[in-house]
Amino acid sequence: MSMQERAQHHMSQLDKELSRYPALHNFEQQTSVPKVYAVLGLGALYFFLVFFNIAGEFLVNVAGFAIPGYYSLEALFSSNKKDDEQWLTYWVTFAFLTFLHPQSRTESSQNILEQQEHHANKLASVLESMVSAVYWFPFYYTFKFVLVLWMALPQTSGAQVIYRNLLQPVFAKYFEGHGSASANLRSQVNQATGKSM
Cα separation of 160 and 105, whole Å? Predict the structure, then answer.
């Protein structure tokens, strides 16, 4: 199969998937622009804006909330529990990565320098410098955008991979079994309120 045939095959699959949405069908009829081209064009524009960091942080966060938000709502209305687990895992992983996200760019460079001078002899200063250095990482938002898509898309299940290989080994001791911190906390709450497990 040639490259052109593969591209046509993928475009026909995308067209079939996009046919599920009446708004796109109406758009195609009103503008005479095939819905596949419109969606691919908007996707390319979105990626262009993220790539050149034109509102990159905002656009990456929209992608991190909009796509998973849609699929999470769909999962809540389905009877399948597997998709509930998938999206709960996504949100836990996304929250963990958001927690690790470096400080906001709204601080001026002068303010960052002043903070670093103030904490020059402390370990916190070294950590702040490393976190701030992320902003000097070329194409940071492009990589974050790709990571968020990889985590969010059901076809790739990237959040499951991060959860199983990073979060679960680190946090399992706090949440599993009768000797876990969460089980101990639950039993203490139940004892204080007079309820039995």
Answer: 30
Contact indicator for 157, 68 with CB cutoff of 8 Å: no
Cβ contact 103:84 at 8 Å: no
Note the pTM of the prediction, 2 decimals. Answer: 0.69
Q: How many residues does the chain have?
A: 197
Q: Estimate the crossing angle of helix 3-18 against helix 35-51, to 10 degrees.
A: 100
The closest of 10, 53, 43, 161 to 97, measured between CA atoms, is: 161
126-146 pLDDT, tens digit per residue, is 555 555 555 667 788 899 899
Nearest of 169, 56, 68, 65 to residue 104 by alpha carbon: 56
DSSP state of 157: -
The alpha carbon of 138 is separated from its chain's Cα centroid by a whole number of angstroms, namely 20
147 — alpha (psi -120 to 50), left (phi > 0) or beta? alpha
Can you tell me the distance from the alpha carbon of 49 to that of 56, in angstroms, rounded to the nearest whole number?
7
Burial of 144 (0-12, 13-18, 19+ CB in 10 A): buried
Q: Residue 7 contacts by C-beta under 8 Å, 6 or more apart in sequence?
A: none
